[in-house]
Design a protein that fits this description.
The complex is a heterodimer of chains A (328) and B (362).
Chain A (H helix, E strand, L loop, with lengths): L1 H29 L7 H23 L6 H29 L4 H27 L7 H7 L6 H4 L4 H6 L3 H19 L1 H11 L1 H6 L4 H27 L12 H11 L4 H20 L7 H4 L2 H15 L21
Helix pairs in contact in A: 1-8, 1-11, 1-12, 1-13, 2-3, 2-4, 2-11, 2-12, 3-4, 3-5, 3-11, 8-9, 8-13, 9-11, 12-13, 12-15
Chain B lengths: L1 H5 L3 E5 L5 H18 L1 H6 L4 H13 L2 H26 L7 H19 L5 H30 L3 H21 L22 E2 L2 E2 L1 H18 L1 H11 L1 H6 L4 H28 L10 H11 L4 H25 L5 H21 E5 H8 L1
Antiparallel strand pairs in B: 1-4, 2-3
Helix pairs in contact in B: 2-15, 4-14, 5-9, 5-10, 5-12, 5-13, 5-14, 6-7, 6-8, 6-12, 6-13, 7-8, 7-12, 9-10, 10-12, 13-14, 13-15, 14-15
Classes of the chains: A mainly alpha (328), B mainly alpha (362).
């Protein structure tokens, strides 16, 4: 039991990165755009979210850097690069009407390439690992909740011993839930994703909604990459370690049945699966096979969700299809 | 006159057809544009892009030894692109070629490891090839089955299968098949299990070139190829015509995986001489670029695979000579795909400006 609590507590860190990735993709897919490039987008967010604070700290000198400014810079820069990727995706699929699947795959290749390239260049420039001072590292992974909350049995460790980004992600999930179910804009967005023909007839600007949802969604996903580098990876850029996270986020969107609130527990669950091999040892079971677990579970989840054909748990009806007004 | 004001500034209309020469001119222009955009990261790295491209071409093609290395890169790329072409034609997004290559390689290696010393070379190699094909085929059939039966998302399914196959190799490498303890490496195969060289390159290139023709015929002149094309255009039409869509999907996936498995066999038996977790090394993804850039045309794939192999080998040289990170190859490959996807728009649609349309109306 104790091991399980420790596991779930630690899972929150990795789960936070996944949660941002998933929430971004939920928003994108609600507009009917299926951006498979989340892997590339999270990679780019991961490196730009580290480099910009790194440049800032070097510019003002170690020790003079304001932690709050550094965090804001990391969030803004990673969001911006993700938003750029979302805009590029929208331009190619919405304006130039290209196939969404292949464009997404191209985005995955492009994004990981850009991230590795930029990371390597920066590494050559600073002559060693790209990282931050310990002060800033602490600010990024600050478990700031008061001790008495962390001491609450069971839930204290899981809910209150987390970094600031965890709470940001939770707030975002709740906000997105309200946006999608309670606001006019949110309902319009869902209409665009469900039936663009109807939405168009109702006078909704399809192009605008698709672009905006994909841009903001890309930005949110990229923040997830930044959160991963700055918390789980300890503010150090290791190219290989982020590999697979973006794809898991796309899978989690299906697992959450396109609902932001579900992403909260789903991300922590998958965060736990990712680090389980470190925390819960199974005797005589090889570690390398143990590491497969999250991917195997993803497959099981994909199969189960597809066999149970429940009506209100379906993807947006026009997901992955481009809308051409002229071809109605 | 008032109606003119209501005309949008830019209108789009579908083109009937363009001359093939114009179509290819647009496509070549998009490749040129992509290569120009590929200069941006090189400039960012503070290097002269023209000199850099020169070094890339030199590093890939200037000496027979370099050319051999470039061809070695092109072989699995071309083979895998040929493998995934039928799937993509069917609009079945198989991005698990990486895993299918790896699993084919595992089964093939099992034969080499357990039977390598007891069988003569030729039957052993044939057995390894068949085993690899079946291994890769099974790895692709599983997601194909669930797609056909329950419409399970094939993109994510095939992708997750990659991680599983690679994980299995990591386990074999450090466990049952490990050579000297602690090396985390599988020992080299016996000579009988190695593909012979032809013109200094393992003979896989001949097999792949034969495969180019076979796939071309299969896709364009057989009933199977026709069925695949119909499903790709419209699944409902295929059903209405009485085709068994599920069966065709599973069959095509098995075939695609089997070819990937053969590529895996050639990689372990020819290129590397042993199995490691990096056996596919990103080929499964780059092959998607190859397949799509060549519009799923097998002969065009030869050219595109060669081009991407030159970029890949060239960027490795660029890294050693000018310390421009080799990942520039991924960026160029991504940009190439973006440009190619974008340029189809200008082939399929014509843009009519407001003023111009007036003249047409009159």
């Amino acid at each position: 039991m104790n091991a399980l609590i420790l596991l779930l507590g630690a899972a929150g860190a990795y789960g936070t990165a996944l949660m941002f990735g998933t929430l971004g993709e939920v928003l994108t897919e609600k507009s009917g755009n299926m951006n498979l490039g989340v892997e590339g987008i999270m990679y780019m967010g991961g490196i730009f979210g580290l480099i910009v604070p790194n440049v800032y700290e070097m510019a003002v000198g170690t020790g003079n850097a304001n932690p709050f400014v550094a965090i804001m810079l990391a969030v803004i820069s990673s969001f911006a690069v993700g938003a750029f990727a979302g805009a590029l995706f929208s331009f190619i699929t919405v304006t130039l009407r290209a196939n969404q699947n292949v464009t997404g795959l191209a985005m995955a290749t492009f994004g990981t390439g850009v991230a590795k390239f930029v990371g390597e260049l920066r590494r050559l420039k600073v002559g060693g690992y790209v990282t931050l001072s310990n002060e800033l590292k602490f600010a990024f992974d600050n478990h700031f909740m008061p001790q008495f909350l962390k001491d609450i049995p069971v839930i204290g460790r899981i809910l209150f011993n987390q970094s600031e980004f965890f709470y940001l992600a939770i707030i975002l999930a709740i906000a997105m839930h309200f946006f999608l179910t309670k606001t006019k804009t949110g309902l319009y967005l869902r209409a665009v994703g469900e039936s663009p023909v109807t939405a168009d007839a109702a006078g909704i600007n399809i192009t605008k909604y698709k672009y905006l949802a994909t841009i903001v969604g890309g930005g949110i996903s990229a923040v997830g990459g930044m959160v991963y580098t700055m918390t789980t990876a300890g503010c150090v850029w290791i190219e290989a370690s982020l590999s697979g996270t973006g794809w898991l986020a796309v899978a989690l969107v299906i697992f959450c049945t396109w609902r932001p609130l579900n992403s909260m527990w789903a991300s922590i669950l998958f965060g736990a699966l990712m680090i389980m091999y470190l925390r819960i040892v199974i005797p005589f079971f090889p570690t390398e096979l143990y590491k497969i677990l999250p991917y195997a579970v993803t497959i099981v989840v994909l199969v189960i969700t597809s066999t149970r054909n429940i009506k209100d748990k379906q993807p947006p009806a026009s997901l992955g299809l481009n809308y051409f007004r002229e071809e109605r | 006159m008032n109606t003119n004001l209501k005309m949008p500034l830019i209108r789009l209309a579908k083109r009937d057809s363009l001359k093939p020469s114009v179509v290819w001119a647009i496509r070549i222009a998009s490749v040129v544009l992509a290569l120009l955009l590929g200069m941006i990261p090189i400039i960012m790295a503070g290097k002269n892009p023209f000199v850099s491209y020169g070094i890339m071409i030199e590093g890939a093609l200037s000496k027979p030894g370099y050319i051999r290395q470039t061809v070695k890169r092109a072989i699995p790329l071309l083979g895998t692109a040929l493998a995934i072409a039928p799937c993509f034609k069917m609009k079945f997004w198989n991005i698990g070629a990486e895993g299918q290559i790896t699993f084919g390689a595992i089964i093939s290696s099992a034969i080499a490891i357990y039977l390598g010393k007891s069988l003569p070379s030729f039957p052993l190699l044939v057995l390894m090839a068949v085993a690899g094909a079946i291994g890769g085929g099974i790895w692709a059939f599983i997601p194909g089955y669930f797609k056909a039966k329950y419409n399970t998302n094939e993109t994510l399914f095939t992708l997750m299968m990659n991680y599983i196959a690679i994980g299995i190799v990591r386990w074999l490498q450090g466990g049952p098949w490990e050579g000297r303890k602690g090396t985390q490496m599988i020992p080299m195969f016996p000579d009988a299990a190695r593909l012979p060289n032809v013109l200094g390159i393992y003979c896989g290139w001949i097999i792949i070139l034969v495969l180019v023709v076979i796939i071309h015929v299969y896709m364009n002149f057989t009933k199977h190829g026709y069925e695949v094309a119909v499903i790709g255009d419209s699944e409902n039409t295929a059903r209405y015509a009485g085709m068994n869509v599920g069966w065709i999907m599973m069959r095509t996936m098995f075939l695609s995986g089997a070819i990937c498995g053969i590529v895996g066999w050639m990689l372990v038996s020819g290129a590397n001489g042993t199995l490691n977790s990096d056996v596919a090394g990103g080929v499964g993804f780059t092959a998607i670029t190859v397949a799509w850039l060549s519009q799923l045309n097998s002969f065009a794939m030869v050219v595109i695979a060669a081009m991407l192999a030159v970029i890949g080998k060239g960027s490795a040289t660029l890294q050693t000579k000018l310390s421009v990170p080799a990942s520039v190859a991924d960026i160029i490959s991504g940009v190439l795909l973006f440009c190619m996807l974008g340029c189809e728009f200008f082939i399929n649609y014509k843009i009519i400006l407001r003023g111009k349309s007036d003249k047409e109306v009159q």
